[in-house]
C-alpha cells in the first residue's frame, strides 16, 4: 500500500511541455496503487520522462468508449482501500475529457475524490487571448450535427461572457464561419499548440481570423476564444429578450438577466419588464 490516502486522484498533465507538470502530480503518479489513463501509452511516456517507474503496478485504460466496462474495476480497487490516479491525455481530467462518470460514481460510493490541479488548455488560451477574463464560459467542442450546433451557438450568443471553444485544425475554418454568421463579427483569438514549439496566438475580429486561416491554415490543437457581444442593444432587442425571459422568470429576475446580458441600466430594463408583464 502507498502513503497516499485511499481514493481517486484526478491528475492534470502537461498540454505540451513535459516540464509543466506539478511536483504534487508527480508524487501522486509515483505513489498511487493503481494508474488509470485515457491513453496508457501517453501516461507511460510522461512517467518515463520524469523517471517514475511503474514498479509492477496495474495500469488500465479508461476512456469514453470503455468507461462502462472499466469503471467497476476502478471502483473495486477504491473499495479495497487503494489509491487510484487518473490522467487524461493532456490537461485537466473531466474538462472536455472522460472521467466525469468515474468521479461521480466514486464520490457516490463514499470514496475520496480529489485533484492534483495543473495545466488547462482552456485557461492557458484565455490568459493569452487578450480578451476579458472577468467572466468566461467554457463550451468545449461544438456539437457535430448542424442543427445542434446552430441551437448551441444561438444560446451561447446571448451569454454575457467570453466564450472558449476547443476545435480541430480540420474544422476550424467551418466553425469560425458558423460562429461569425450566428454571433456576429466579434473580437477573438485563435490559440494553437499551446506550450509547444510552434505555439501561436492569432488575434483580431472573426472575419480577420477567417481570412488568415484561408491564407495560412493552422495545424495542431486549437482553442478559440471569443469576446461577448459588444453591440449596443436597441429597445426592440431588449423587448424581445425580455419577452423570452418572462416566459420562465419573474419580472425581477428577467430584468436582472437581460440588463446584464445587453449592458443596459437595470432600472430601465425593469420598467420595461413591468410593462410587458402587465401586458401579458
The gist of it:
This protein has 280 residues and is an alpha/beta fold.
Structure notes:
The strands form two sheets. The chain has a five-stranded parallel β-sheet with strand order 3-2-4-1-5, with helices on both faces. By secondary structure, it is an alpha/beta fold. It has eleven helices and ten strands. The protein is globular and about 70 Å long. The chain has three domains: 7-119, Cobalt-precorrin-4 Transmethylase, domain 1; 122-226, Methyltransferase, Cobalt-precorrin-4 Transmethylase, Domain 2 (2-Layer Sandwich); 235-279. The mean pLDDT is 92. The longest helix has 14 residues, at 266-279. 43% of the residues lie in helices and 19% in strands. Helix 3 runs parallel beside helix 4 (100-108), helix 9 (235-246) packs across helix 10 and helix 10 packs across helix 11.
CATH-wise, what's the superfamily of the largest domain? Answer: Tetrapyrrole methylase, N-terminal domain
Low-pLDDT residue intervals, each spanning 5 or more residues: none
Radius of gyration: 23 Å
Shape: globular
Q: For the report, how would you describe the main beta sheet? A: 5 strands, parallel
Query: Do you know the CATH topology of the largest domain?
Result: Cobalt-precorrin-4 Transmethylase, domain 1
Q: H/E series, N to C?
A: EHEHEHEHEHEHEHEEHEHHH
Q: Tell me the domain tally.
A: 3
According to DSSP, the number of beta strands is 10
Helical amount = 40-55%
Structural class: alpha/beta
Sheet with the most strands: spatial strand order: 3-2-4-1-5
Q: What's the number of helices?
A: 11
Oligomerization category of the chains in this entry: single chain
CATH architecture of the largest domain: 3-Layer(aba) Sandwich
Proportion of residues in extended strands: 15-25%
End-to-end C-alpha gap: 66 Å
Catalytic activity: cytidine(1402) in 16S rRNA + S-adenosyl-L-methionine = 2'-O-methylcytidine(1402) in 16S rRNA + S-adenosyl-L-homocysteine + H(+)
Pfam families: RsmI_C, TP_methylase
EC number: 2.1.1.198
Protein name: Ribosomal RNA small subunit methyltransferase I
Amino acid at each position: 500500500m502507498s502513503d497516499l490516502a485511499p481514493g481517486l486522484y484526478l491528475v492534470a498533465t502537461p498540454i505540451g511541455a513535459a516540464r509543466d507538470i506539478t511536483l504534487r502530480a508527480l508524487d501522486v503518479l509515483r505513489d498511487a496503487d493503481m494508474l488509470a489513463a485515457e491513453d496508457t501509452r501517453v501516461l507511460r511516456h510522461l512517467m518515463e520522462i520524469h523517471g517514475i517507474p511503474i514498479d509492477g503496478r496495474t495500469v488500465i485504460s479508461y476512456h469514453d468508449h470503455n468507461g462502462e466496462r472499466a469503471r467497476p474495476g476502478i471502483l473495486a480497487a477504491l473499495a479495497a482501500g487503494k489509491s487510484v490516479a487518473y490522467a487524461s491525455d493532456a490537461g485537466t481530467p473531466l474538462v472536455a475529457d472522460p472521467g466525469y462518470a468515474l468521479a461521480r460514481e466514486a464520490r457516490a460510493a463514499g470514496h475520496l475524490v480529489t485533484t492534483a490541479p495543473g495545466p488547462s488548455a482552456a485557461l492557458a488560451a484565455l490568459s493569452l487571448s487578450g480578451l476579458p477574463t472577468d467572466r468566461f464560459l467554457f463550451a468545449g467542442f461544438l456539437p457535430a450535427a448542424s442543427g445542434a450546433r446552430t441551437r448551441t451557438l444561438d444560446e451561447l450568443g446571448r451569454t454575457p461572457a467570453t466564450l472558449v471553444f476547443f476545435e480541430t485544425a480540420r474544422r476550424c475554418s467551418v466553425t469560425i464561419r458558423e460562429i461569425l454568421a450566428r454571433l456576429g463579427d466579434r473580437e477573438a483569438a485563435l490559440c494553437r499548440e499551446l506550450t509547444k514549439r510552434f505555439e501561436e496566438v492569432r488575434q483580431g475580429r472573426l472575419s480577420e481570423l477567417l481570412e488568415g486561416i484561408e491564407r495560412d491554415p493552422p495545424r495542431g490543437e486549437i482553442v478559440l476564444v471569443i469576446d461577448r457581444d459588444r453591440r449596443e442593444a436597441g429597445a426592440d432587442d431588449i423587448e424581445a429578450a425580455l419577452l423570452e425571459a418572462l416566459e420562465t422568470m419573474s419580472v425581477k429576475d428577467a430584468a436582472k438577466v437581460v440588463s446584464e446580458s445587453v449592458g443596459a441600466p437595470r432600472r430601465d430594463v425593469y420598467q420595461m419588464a413591468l410593462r410587458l408583464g402587465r401586458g401579458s
